[in-house]
Amino acid sequence: MELAALTAIGRTRQLTAGESIIWEGEDSVLVANVIDGVLKLSTNTEDGREQIVGVVYPSDFIGRPFGGTTGHGVTALTDAKVCVFSRRDFDAFAREHPALEHKLLERTLGELDRTRRWMLLLGRKSAAEKMASFLVEMTERLSGSSCRVERDKPNQRILTLPFSRQQIADVLGLTIETVSRQFTRLKNEGVIDLPSRREVTILDFDTLVAEAG
Amino acid sequence: MELAALTAIGRTRQLTAGESIIWEGEDSVLVANVIDGVLKLSTNTEDGREQIVGVVYPSDFIGRPFGGTTGHGVTALTDAKVCVFSRRDFDAFAREHPALEHKLLERTLGELDRTRRWMLLLGRKSAAEKMASFLVEMTERLSGSSCRVERDKPNQRILTLPFSRQQIADVLGLTIETVSRQFTRLKNEGVIDLPSRREVTILDFDTLVAEAG
DNA sequence: CGGCAATTTGACTATCCTCAACAGGGGTGG
DNA sequence: CCACCCCTGTTGAGGATAGTCAAATTGCCG
Q1: Is the pTM value of this prediction over 0.85?
Q2: Preferred mutation among A66, A69, A105 to probe B, highest tally of B CBs within 10 A
Q3: Are residues A91 and A181 in contact, defined by beta-carbon separation less than 8 angstroms?
Q4: Which of A42, A44, A69, A119 to mutate to test the interface with B (most CBs of B within 10 A)?
Q5: Which of A10, A35, A78, A110 is the most buried (most CB within 10 A)?
Q6: Both A73 and A108 in a single domain?
Q7: Is A179 helix (H, G, I), strand (E, B) or coil?
Q8: CA nearest B70 in A: which residue?
């Protein structure tokens, strides 16, 4: 299979939480595959406001093949392991392996769909709807990995979020204070519980879905 | 060239302004190339709020190849001409023509970049910044086609927008009233002029760029 | 010229942001 | 092992931006 040859031109790299491997605006010199961990894609305004424009999980692809500059930085949210390729090598390899390009095309189309759905959230949803949408998405994305279920409470999911409050705000286009207030509101209403800073227990998933707009 | 064979499996279709060719949520049954005109890609919340998630111009690609349902509707903003393909035919054709897939991949990657940049606008920019960004983008996109220059005023560009006020609001994640107020503010400040409903004269492009954030 | 839809304007309101103070908790060093 | 400290997150008060609702105006088309 081609994967062997592809692996040969890549090398794995370990990242610690907070470490960046690609910076906004620089020439695209490398691409990578996520092996383990969660990374964010983000852009900033000149005056420092940040918007997280994508979140990538294991098996996702990072970087901008085929020329151009990268429009967003890539930073590890958790400790992460990635398989890095020189963009030149990758480009050449891809052009010779249509099956790989096809796979990449399918992934990119899916990513574009997901990104566009997120635009509806950013442009048209209220803070409450944004938070609910976020928690629904997180429940789906973290199913399996960072998700525990207590034996006696099968409807509850305990998620370990890969985001700080500030990062959640940067995903949703809100401020950290608004995010915090929404969390405490949902907790007071019995929809979620907050066992620790990075954990959320989903008590009433249906209400979240309804509130997501 | 392969284009001949591709054209053989497609057929051109004329759309009048306001007409849709793809609806949100339906199975992806066709894809198309824009020959002439401007179309919007949009999603709606259940309660009717709309967000325009993309705008396509001549030579752009429409639709979702390779399975899946389309996450957004496609509607003509102006009268338009498109070259339509059955998705089945197109998928099969594409798989046999890596050069076409490569081209489509490059386009899709570019579209993803542009979409992500727009997320920064939706999530983090003020109404004034959104309007300025919009007018800057329009000036760039419409250079040539819907753009006139008076002989004696080379720095002014007269744009014919393919959007109504409501549609501008749906692009920017604002209300129609806010868009209208921003237009009159910019006009009062001498940055633009508004000769008619669909036209904008750019008097001071630099100020717009500065105000775009 | 009249009718209709799109746009503008105005007054008021709500949501979310800003600024500021406070609380918690996890880790470190005594 | 406990106390302290610092960072992150929470809470509060007040304010600004953009939304809502309503009315007036424009301009387009028959």
Answers
A1: yes
A2: A105
A3: no
A4: A119
A5: A10
A6: yes
A7: helix
A8: A113
